[in-house]
Amino acid sequence: MQNKRLSFGELKLISDMSGVPYDTLRATNNGVRNNMRARVAIDVYLDSKAGLTKKIIAELRDI
Predict the structure, then answer these.
(1) Any idea what the Cα angle at residue 32 is, between residues 9 and 2, rounded to 5°?
(2) Distance between CA 7 and CA 54 in Å, rounded?
(3) If you write DSSP's letter for every residue of 12-61 in order, what string do you get?
């Protein structure tokens, strides 16, 4: 899992999309708990966010 502190809004979004409870995501993100479903949900979110950022940068270079 990538070590990055996520905001309340990001954790709430991940919770809504994945079905993993917000408290579990928060505890996993803060390193208090190590829940596999929460880790996977956070990793998928961060990977998709990184991919979207790369796509936006590539499109901006074309302008």
Answers:
(1) 60
(2) 21
(3) HHHHHHH---HHHHHHHHTTS---HHHHHHHHHHHHHHHHHHHHHHHHHH
> Are the C-beta atoms of 29 and 5 separated by less than 8 Å?
yes
The CA-atom distances, in angstroms, between 12 and each of 17, 26, 36 are 9, 9, 17
Whole-structure pTM value? 0.77
Amino acid at 5: R
Over residues 42-58, the pLDDT tens digits come to 999 999 998 988 888 88
C-alpha distances in Å from residue 32, one per residue of 15, 25, 26, 35, 57: 17, 10, 9, 10, 35
Q: Which two tokens stand for residue 57?
A: 């940068």
Q: Could you tell me the residue ranges of all domains in the chain?
A: 8-62
